[in-house]
Amino acid sequence: MTQSFGLNAGLRSLSAHLLLALVLISPVQAKEDEGNDAYAIGLWGDLPYSEEQTTIGVPNLIADMNTQKLAFTVHDGDLKAGSNSSCDDALYQRSLDYFNVLKAPAMFTPGDNDWTDCDRPSNGGYNSLERLEYERQVFFSTPYSLGQHRIQQEEQDVYVENRRWTVSKVTYATLNIQGSCNNLCDTAPDANEYAARNAADIEWMKETFAKAKERHSVAVMFISQANPGWDQSDPTRAPLRNPKTLAETDGQPDGFQEFLTALREEVIAFEKPVSYVHGDSHYHRIDKPFLNDQGQRLENFTRVETFGDNQNNGINEVHWLKVFVNPRQREVFSYQTQIVPANRVAVPAP
Asked: 128-139 and 89-101 are packed helices; what angle lies between their axes, rounded to 10 degrees?
């Protein structure tokens, strides 16, 4: 296995970066960027899931991101493994430290492993809503991003983790949409919590499209945690769904149909490119799985799933996705995987 540094060196490097971050946190930048210049962003998530990923893999990934000029980065949720890993306060502080090492503005949307599933006995048996509220205090106590350089964001009332920002004619938004059936299954499902948050997510999504039209945005990107399932093609990784009706067909509680139906209407009406980024099922891919009710593929919609943990492979899949954003180009978004050289295992870096 080829790595840039071992456990102790990784910890020393991360500590040095943290110290530097405390010195270099910059003043807040303008809330909106009205230009149309091209730029790049970084996407990652479902990390870290193990001690090796915590002390070696993720520091390597962050260092790699910091070598590149990025307008901002987004982690799409799951700060730890889903089971046998504590949801104690230290988890969130460690994650905050990671985000503040990133040179570019750093965004985050919660994942089920770091709040919905914290009620599992193996995770400490915490109250899920209390853990979500704690995340809000740690990551979302101000209307600004994280990272060494910070930008101001719009935030939703009550659900302050739902954020929105615009850079060079492209509008971005995060949505608190979770695995474990969006909190309708698993250890302690909560239908009332789901209903309120789902309504808020739909409202935020619709409002984002309205804001994008108002700002004459050329594209929209959403970032959330859950893979809601889009069709019948992915039974090992996502809910099975009738792609025309969007109804779940596998007998599990469906926490996504109402949102997906509303999203589809908005995507069709917007006409311009829409990218939907998520994690959850731990399989990096970029495809077009969204159909209309006639079974026709929505040409302007792209699903993007970030790299995800495979604990059995150590740091082998601890990588990130670079998105080039050019408001002057027809498709706006183009995607390039970033295989972190220090995290290569099966085939060492040349």
From this structure: 30
Taking the C-alpha atoms of residue 218 and residue 299, their distance in angstroms, rounded to an integer, is: 15
pLDDT tens, residue by residue, 208-230: 999 999 999 999 999 999 999 99
- Give the C-alpha separation, 226 to 78, whole Å: 10
The closest alpha carbon to 160, from 109, 126, 211, belongs to: 109
How confident is residue 24, by pLDDT bands cut at 50, 70 and 90? very low
Q: Which CATH architecture has domain 7-343?
A: 4-Layer Sandwich (3.60)
Name the DSSP letter for residue 160: T
b/e per residue 174-212 (b: at least 16 CB within 10 A): bbbbbbbbbbbebebbbeebbeebbebbbebbeebbebb
Q: Are 219 and 150 in contact, with CB atoms under 8 Å apart?
A: no
* pTM exceeding 0.90: yes
How long, in residues, is the chain?
A: 350
pLDDT value at residue 15: 46
